[in-house]
Amino acid sequence: MASVCFYFQVHQPFRLRRYSVFDTDTNYFDDYKNAEICRKVAQKCYLPTNRLMLELLRRYGKEFSVSYSITGVALEQFQKWAPEVVDSFRALADTGQVEILAETYYHSLAFLYSREEFRDQVTAHTAKIGETFGLRPRVFRNTELIYNNDLAHFVQGMGYIGICAEGADHVLGYRSPNYLYRPIGCDRIALMLKNYRLSDDIAFRFSDRNWAEWPLRAEKFAEWVNQVNGNGFVVNLFMDYETFGEHQWADSGIFDFMYHLPEHVLKHKDNDFMTLSRAAQAYAPVAELDIPHMVSWADMERDLSAWLGNAMQSNALHELYRLEEAVKTSGDPQLLHDWRRLQTSDHFYYMCTKWFADGDVHKYFNPYESPYDSYINFMNCLDNVRSRLRR
Amino acid sequence: MLGWEFPPFISGGLGTACYGLTKALSDLGTEILFILPRGSTNQRLERVHVVSAGDKTAPRGRTHTYWTVDGLEHVKLIPVGAAVTPYITEQEYLEQRKREEQARASTVTEKAETGPPAVDPSRPTSLGIFAAPDIYAGDLFSEVHRYARMVAEIARTSEFDVIHAHDWMTYPAGLSVAALSGKPLVVHCHSTEFDRSGTNVNQRVYDIERAGFHGASRIICVSRLTKDLVTSRYGVPESKCRVIYNAITVNGEPIFHQCQKIEEDDKIVLFLGRITMQKGPEYFLAAAKKVLEVMDNVKFIMAGSGDMIKRMIELAAAMGIGHRVTFTGFLRGDDVDRIFEMADLYVMPSVSEPFGLAPLEALSHDVPVLISKQSGVSEVLTHALKVDFWDINEMANKIIAVLRHPPLRKTLREHGSFEVRKFAWSDAARACVDVYQEAVQNG
After folding, report:
1. In chain A, what residues touch B382 (CB-CB under 8 Å)?
2. Which of A22, A311, A373 sits opposite B393 (nearest CB)?
3. Which CA distances in Å does B328 have to A104, A311, B271, B442?
4. H-run or E-run covering B329
């Protein structure tokens, strides 16, 4: 059997506005830019891709299914600025073939700093998914697929049956990402690993004309999936949803590719599509996997260095989480919400100096001219949060 | 090479760049005849040996007395007695001339006893200096042309393949030599009249620059910013321009911490450069005022001299921040090292800066930098804070952030001191050699 498990990440951060040390108001977020980006990505990606998915779900019925992880901050922004996106996701959820995963509401790094805050945010996200889609997540994915043994253990304690992680070479060794594993020390939760080669073929290489496999067609990709038959259960294709139409533009043929993929995958009678929770129930873990160090799906390093690689990043995060108790005892819900929106991992990603000089994917997603500017801006906002606490 | 200034008497970036480039070219084995204008000041140069024309050690056929310099194996230095100095303005030239003449009047009797000075500008004196009847011509422009005449005289009896002239005052000389010898001229544009004077352009300077650009086979610009100015304001085809960024000599020696800060708690923000319109000193003070509204333990140091220094001292006082701003005057050598060592941040608020070497010097001293976006160096420096020179709120915002957040300083320092190593004169010299070859082949 080869079950194709698609999981798409949907996320938009509340980007900060230019907030100078001389500013004293409490509007930290750039409503104009956030609305603009939300609407732009809705038109280029979310709406057309959802329409395509809905068509596929209807055409193939039970034979086709996908999973999504939609952050709370993204949903909040859609509701505000592009409500039709929420409706289109709801239409997908209503087919019954779509699963929504659990994660932190604020797409945060809370697990690294505060277990209590982490639990609160996951709970808040579950509540939001329940109220918006009427679904209850059963599989958990952490921000940017950040994962280690402790996280698996903690999440199992919260009642989830599956958890996602990056199938990084340095944790898998000779093992294959196409099986399910059991995190060491756990007895119920299943660990599902991203097949990064096949995932990145779609997410990163699809429109790369220098790539030997370009142009990638659904037939060819389905053959690669068939090769897993006999030496694996699942093909975990985890990627940003913005791959469709935003990272890979429509003229690259990405929509046609997706449109034809189910047809070619299902040609082989042993293949099917599954949501992550169905896969977690359908297949037994083949071995225990010990991942003591944090892994993620970011950059070549697949570690935390994209958010915690320099002194500015760790300083900003420490200063932010140091305010937890004071913010929570202040009894000010707006302050709590603002503080939590500052936790979104993107703010720290912008401060990354790793590849800054070479310019690449970090730069593409970065609304700031430099990581230094983003740190200065963030610290000014944080200063203001601190001054609200003193009041 | 028609260049400027040799250590230890370097008054700014032009001299530093000329020396760095010449040394690197010499290391590459390029033979250089370096014409050095020397004003009336008979300053002693370091590591210089005089090889006079009559010397037995001098190569055959050499008609000029020249100097050799330790460490610059392939360089022959020919000093000429011309009173052109970098950055001098027409007004300053006249003032300087007056001062010198007054000083000379007092020693005139002594001179009469030692006999009249050599009149023929091409005849070397015993010191190896082409002495002139009067070191000052009528005005700066006459002086520039007098210098050109002397250089042409030297060129007539020298051998070379390419002429490389640095900044406008050497362009007439470069053009004369090119016409005389038929060799290609490469002009090196370190700054233009638009950088120095804003929109109050001196037409005669502009005309000289324009003639130089149009008469040259190739123009080396120190940044894209400068190249854009040269093409748009002087009507020069882009195909003639090449961008070669300046560099810095990082000696790799550890900085030794010997001096105490003014006060332990005081943070120090440094401005280092000529205090002229081009360098934006008033924006520095305006930002300082903003910073002091939020923080009080900050000292602002303005190191340098220039025609705006008096106005800046008055402005600081008028703003009520005089007690927080220190003017040091012009610094050199160890004093520059010491001031960098004290600084927590270096700010270059230049209104127009063709390149800007000082930020690289600051980084090589482990000082984080905040530079104006209107500078050539900001095209190539990534680990620096950048700001529009007129945006004093943002400038203050960034100064405060650096002073308040040690992790920001640390990250800027760590990456910056690493990045600065990529600016090597050897790379700039190799690029220059390529330009020479282009000029020789294509004329």
Report:
1. 356-357, 370
2. A22
3. 56, 34, 10, 49
4. strand B325-329
In the prediction, which pLDDT does B117 show? Answer: 40
Q: How close, in Å, is residue B320 to chain A by CA atoms?
A: 20
Q: Would an 8 Å CB–CB cutoff place A358 in contact with chain B?
A: no
Q: B398: which 2 tokens?
A: 């960034």
Q: How far, in Å, are A146, A165, A186, A284 from residue A101 at the CA level?
A: 15, 13, 20, 20
Q: Which residues pair with A193 in a beta bridge?
A: A165
Q: Are A44 and A58 within 8 A, CB to CB?
A: no
Pair B297, B336 in one domain: yes
DSSP letter assigned to residue A149: H
Nearest to B405 among A310, A371, A379 (CB): A379
Cβ–Cβ below 8 Å for A22 and B290: yes
Q: Quick one: pLDDT at residue B265? A: 76
B interface mutation test: which of A372, A378, A380 has the most B CBs within 10 A? A372
* Together in a domain, B177 and B272: no
Nearest CA in chain B to A23: B397
A20 contacts B393? CB cut-off 8 A: yes
Each residue of A151-188: pLDDT tens digit? Answer: 999 999 999 999 999 999 988 989 999 999 999 999 99
Q: How far apart are CA B70 and CA B6, in angstroms?
A: 12
Give the model confidence (pLDDT) of B58-77 as tens digits. Answer: 454 445 678 888 888 889 88
pTM of the shown model? 0.87
Q: Are B29 and B436 in contact (CB under 8 A)?
A: no
B435/B415 same-domain check: no
Residue B252 lies in a domain: no
Task: Report the distance separating Cα B326 and Cα B261, nearest Å.
Answer: 14
In the structure encoding, which two tokens stand for residue B98, read together?
Answer: 């007056």
Interface test with B, best of A376, A379, A384 (most B CBs within 10 A): A376
Work out how many domains chain B is built from and give that number.
Answer: 2
Q: ipTM, 2 decimals?
A: 0.87
What are residue A295's phi and psi, to 5 degrees? Answer: -120, 160
Supply the range of the domain harboring residue B44.
13-247+426-442
- In angstroms, the CA A229 to CA A232 distance is 6
pLDDT digits (tens, 9 = 90+) for A80-108: 999 999 999 999 999 999 999 999 999 99
Three-state SS for B260? Answer: coil
pLDDT of B49 higher than 80: no
**Residue of B31, B426, B414, B413 whose CA lies nearest to B248:** B426
Assign B417 a pLDDT band (cuts: 50, 70, 90): confident
- The verdict on residue B68 lying in a domain is yes
Residues of A with Cβ-Cβ distance to B411 under 8 angstroms: 310-312, 353, 371-372, 375
Binary contact (B397, A22; C-beta < 8 A): yes
Residue % of chain B over a pLDDT of 70 = 83
**B125 pLDDT higher than 50:** no
Output the domain CATH number for residue B378: 3.40.50.2000
Same domain, B223 and B343: no
Angle at alpha carbon of residue A70, lines to A65 and A75, rounded to 5° = 130
* CA pair distance A190, A181, nearest whole angstrom: 6
* B286 located within any domain: yes
> Do B233 and B153 reside in the same domain of the chain?
yes
> Are B121 and B177 part of one and the same domain?
yes
Calculate Rg over the CA atoms of chain A.
21
Q: What does the pLDDT look like over B24-45, one tens digit per residue? A: 999 999 999 999 887 644 555 6
Report, in angstroms and rounded to the nearest whole number, the Rg of chain B calculated over CA atoms: 23
Residue B205 shares a structural domain with residue B324: no
Q: Cβ contacts (< 8 Å) between A353 and chain B: which residues?
A: 383, 411, 415
B418 in the same domain as B430: no
Of B396, B401, B407, Cβ closest to residue A311: B407
Whether residue B380 lies inside any domain: the answer is yes
